[in-house]
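Exercise (ungraded).
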Amino acid sequence: MATETKAWWKEAVVYQIYPRSFADSNGDGIGDLNGITAHLDYLEKLGIDVIWLSPVYKSPNDDNGYDISDYRDIMTEFGTMEDFDRMLKAAHEHHIRIVMDLVVNHTSDEHAWFVESRKSKDNPYRDYYIWKEPRDGKEPNNWQSCFSGPAWKFDEATGMYYLHCFSAKQPDLNWENPRVRDEVFDMMTWWCEKGIDGFRMDVISMISKDPAYPDGEVKDGIYGDLNPYVCNGPHVHEYLQEMNRRVLSKYDIMTVGEAAGVTLEEAKKYANNEGTELGMVFHFEHTDGATTAENIIGKWGYRHPRMSAIREILNKWQIGLEGEAWGSLYWDNHDQPRVVSRFGNDAPEWRVLSAKMLATCLHMMKGTPYIYQGEEIGMTNTHFSSIEDCRDIEEINAYRQYVTDHHMIPEEEMLKCFDAVARDNARTPMQWDSSENAGFTTGTPWIAVNPNYKEINTKEALADPDSVFYYYQKLIRLRHENPIIVYGVFRPLMTDCESVYAYEREMDGKKLTVACNWTDEEQDCPLFDELAGTELISNYAKHSEGILQPYEARAVLTKL
Ligand code: NOJ
């Protein structure tokens, strides 16, 4: 039965802001902190409890702020530290907490530590990063960086290579060095003292590498897979326990680790109920796993995923974490395509219904839900007609490797993959209204606005009581009002059915029955026929016995 320890962050709903694309207050085409402050009323109306802010620190923006050159300063395009302090204060006045993105697997190559580190082999900062001698005059091993190309870069000054799991401008920090850990923990303490409310930890599962640095399996005929040797490495739990002792345990904050490559068993350690490491982690099984089977190379693929595969993964996590660790719930973030296009149906007749269905399916589960900006109005994927439309380093590098250099994927095919899974789908500007540039900026947006902004925008949504926005608002309110949604035990239902995702939650003599039709056709579903209870939410006003209408979702609360 539900014997979960209570915590504010278990009862919270988080809203992720990608500041670059949220709201531009000064007309330079780039979203900024004052733009966020100006929209806090909107977020308070939605009802969210927490904002997770993608990185706002000083950065040369090779990877849109995930390459930090100064952890104690603000990115010039986003404003100043005074703007940040004002935003934090205003957010708290709106009863919204602020969770910072903590990017400490790597820094920018322009960070003062790296500038020093690369100068000489005996520089005091040398061991802040991972340097290796060449192997036969080449890279120390065959690893491919997560952004294509080798994961090692040769540095003329000392004739050695440094490791970069992401771009060459994102050298990996050497967590084995206790001075690196001291620096990171001091910096975290500095932010906590400022009054922030938590950290989302970027690729935190990658901070401890296999000391043997072995070659990886070559899957695309070019480079080796680094993941098994950098994810969940030998000291990762030790380092997080140290972080917990020295920083996290001293504050009432929320933490969520982005845990690339995490398995259920590992997650139980990272997010253990004893609270010795993190509050919860993000896993990627339902976002990665659900499409890989039919992919072309790596993440590049475009076919429609199967609900039953997604369900099997999510159910496994719901059941597996019960009583042992807390989970997170998400469909979208700044690295994923838009969920209504990916798992729902963005055709005009189904977009709203399927967005609401997907929201119900996720928000009635156990765990802390995350909403990504624009998801609450059903924003969709965009279309890439050429590589010129793309801004994301991951897309640009993959295109160069697979289309231009190695001719492994024809251009049209690659663009089709981008339409389906590119990260830029999530990064087109927030659609506020039907004015030019969707009300995001008065200047030229850094990335093109999705052309559908005239129909899909917050102004329209706020004016329509049946909008996706008000549906999310209701889901959030229901979670705040019904402890069963937060803490109830999860049990899967109808697991043989290919079209309906159903489950129940139970707590304190109550049961919540949830069923979601993931298709555009009517489906059999007997679950509600004999149920005399209260309907908490549905995306249809009328129901028919024994069936769910296309994309219908229902959640009914009954007494046991
Ligand atoms: C994960 C972040 O979510 C992604 O946007 C970034 O590119 C990589 N980590 C590298 O920091």
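Further reading is listed at the end of the chapter. For now, observe: The mean pLDDT is 96. The chain has 18 helices and 20 strands.
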